[in-house]
Amino acid sequence: MSDSKCLARTALRTDLHLACVDGPDVGLVLAPGTVGRAGDVPLSCASVAREHAEFSTRGGRACLRASPHTSPIRVHTRMRGWHRLRGRKRLAPGRRVRLGGDTLEVRGRPRALTWPGIDRRGRGVFSGSSLLRGAPLVSLVVMGGLMAWRLHTLAASPRVLWTLAGVVAAIACIVAVVMVLRARRRRRGWDGAALALVLASLPTAGEPTRIPRAAVWPGRATRLGRRVILAATSSSSQPGDAASLGVVGEYGAECALWCAGQVAAQLGGARVWWRSHSPVLLGYPALDIHVTGDDECPYCARGGVNDKAASALHIGYAAHVAELPSWCARVCVTDEQPVSTRWWWTVTRTTSDDALPERVDWDPDAARGHSGTLSVVIGHSESGPVELDLVTDGPHALVAGCTGSGKSEALLGWLASIAHCYSPACVRFILIDYKGGSTFARLADLPHTQALLTDLDAGATSRALDGIASVLARREAALSDLGVPDLAAWERAYEEDPARTPQPPPRLVVAIDEFRVLADTHPSSMDILLRLAAQGRSLGLHLIAATQRPSGAINASMRANMDIRLALRCVSAPDSTDILGDARASSLPRVPGRAVLAGVGTLQLSYMADVAAVVSECAARWPAASAAPLWAPALPGSLTWTQIDEAWAEQGGNGGAALGSVVLGLVEGIESHSPLAWEGGSVQIQTSAHEAALASRWARSIAARIAGASRLPLHVIGDEAVPGASSRLSPRDLGAIDLIEGIRAHGPAVLAISDVTALRSSLAQALSLPQAEELWSSLLTGAARSGVILVAAFSGRFTSSSAAMGAFSMRLVRARDADEALHAGIQPSSLRSLGEAHALLARPGEETALACVPIDPPPTGVSQGTDGVCHAWRIPSPQEAAALVSNASAPAFIGPEYEPIRWVTDKPWVIIGEPSDVRVVETLHAAHGWTTPTIAEIIPENAWTRIARRDGHRMLALNPSDNVMRGLMRTSRRYPLSIAAHPWNPSCGLIWEDDTLTTIQLTVGSVNT
Q: What's this model's pTM, rounded to 2 decimal places?
């Protein structure tokens, strides 16, 4: 027998072990190792941590070290009683410790592994051997009487007689105390922990005993004479023997197992049936024992399960006498708990010679169960097919199994079998696969599948949970309107009268493969799902949660709501215990599909060899169009502005958008998608660096949409043009500086920036870094006040600057992983799988949602108004400026806007430069029809220190040097920042008038060109 099959056997491989003598886990024996709910022998006490302490032995003493952050361990000593264990304590055999509600005792390995047999009768039936055992006592009484008579005849004094009597009485008392202590010590060796070691040491092979008789204590061990003698066959029974036993009490089941263990210990082994289709073994099968609380033994009723049913020993149990099976020949009443239920699974092992095949192929003709709403045949036990119904047996299920156990195939087979037997009108699937979608991908084409969710699109899980909540809310309202308590009552009413009762909605099966990953990465989603499962018991929601390592992932809420427990082979006893409450699944053979179903026992799950064929057959029988979706379908991958306008026109007007707002796209919803309404404010687009082109297209598209709908001029800073835009400048153009600087004075307007990163880099190169940052910050902070709407694309950086945090009322974020989401201020749980035109919509005070926005601008560009306001102010690009200079009839243009000179009055001139520049002034006067200009002073360029404020004058400096430029800037209150980086030549320069400094550009054909 391997230790993995009998957990108690490990305690025999060490010199010391811990025996649980009181508490919820009474009877368990623990070998050195981890002590707790995740130990090699898991404890069930709720006040004990998963890894509560570390137990080891050294030098004939036990060492117990408490784990940090656990409840204190208490140890009992003769001097101090119970006190707290601090640090690592070495404990001698016999010392007791208390972990939570369990009391453990340090014990050494027994020198003799025996259990008192039936030959040690004690007080029982009177026989000749009883006279022989009492002969020594009779001789002592006779001798004592003769001695007393002899002393009396010698006329001894009364004092001597009283002294002798006292000595005799003292000796008698000492003998009595010794006998009592010896009896107590002996009875302490007859508890559940001692019996566990005896059962673990039983051989696995032997011959059945000829006389199947045994004596058992129904409760805790007391005197030998209080035992009940059981005999399996009438031929071997004697007067007073019982063929069956019934135990009544609060712990009736535990007492029945305790009795079965005692029988096995005396006979060398037994094969026991209890709450299972298949038996477990104690030692070798010397006797069959049936433990049940039913009035008709279910194991005898199964033909072929037990060939020795006629000679089987029966032990019944019940909480009350009235509930005890009628076949019990001897009834014992006790409220003691000699062992725990978990003790039973540490002393037994599964039988290796079961009749289960290593593979059971799925049979489509016999897949449907005989009764139930969603009943299907999931496998075969020794007694035949096993049916499972999520409605009557559930409503929720837990499935566990390690790698190679066949868990994924079992899930696929179960779900595909349900789909094969029941239409989409009866059941729908929501599949959550947190292993990348590898398990449930084959079921995605089922007409029953509403959604397939993976860890690659975590945000879709949140949407599905919202969809489930919406479906349940609608069902709850429908149940209230119909006046029925639950969906089952609705289904019955529809079957009875389909003409008057509307058809009930389908049941929802939410299947999760590897829910431990979901619980670890998205605990909030798992909590919501469990809450919905608890609320949806009456609304037709069923949850199937599967994992490889259930240890630690199953909480009290899951255990309370999930009645179906299916465990395939598990790698450890704690994993099996978390599912079944015992370690049976950890000792299953390495046969794919072999499992233990709680309440049924061991079975071989059906294997569906061709899942794709079943899916195709279901799709042909029930077309996907016939299955109405439970919530709105996924957003389209892309949209055009024409499609958006047509959709909202069909829905009437703005399609749900507020009056005066602009619809920019679709926002994903549960029952239906809603319009992405822009109601004012700036828009920020954030993408990674490799999607810079997409961000640029989006910025131009959204800006053109807003400008066209709002009849505002559009200005673009980017490398691509938008038809109808007033200005189109590259981020490297100096005109971009003038556009940013001047647009606030010419609002309202729309400014599209296709690459903020490139623009800010160009600003920093053209200007000083403080000037560039100040210019950018002033644009962000002053845009709203001046009516300027920014549509800015940020690529390669998700972290917003402090100035940008409050500047945008709407953000479209293309975050693809948790790191990008956190830098963008979005919860990782909101991440979604993004299509080409998809982005996460983030607005202040609203939850993050998925939106679809057209990428390309409207084909017609920005529609211009007839009043000409769109071209009231603009900054020409270098190409446009060159065309103006080449083709204009005016001699010069003023300012970055390249406007014709419109002076009203003539003023004296100050020329900074060469005397030949006077010709330029004369040409300008001639264009205005003025007389010869008045030249007040000509300042040579190297005399730039003479530059000073000249009120009532105009100053002209063509091709100015840096010193001249700084001198003019010092005398001005207003001047464009771009002049600091302007490339000067003899055809352009600076002109000063009334504290304002600006540029002047001579046209082709004029002086100096």
A: 0.66
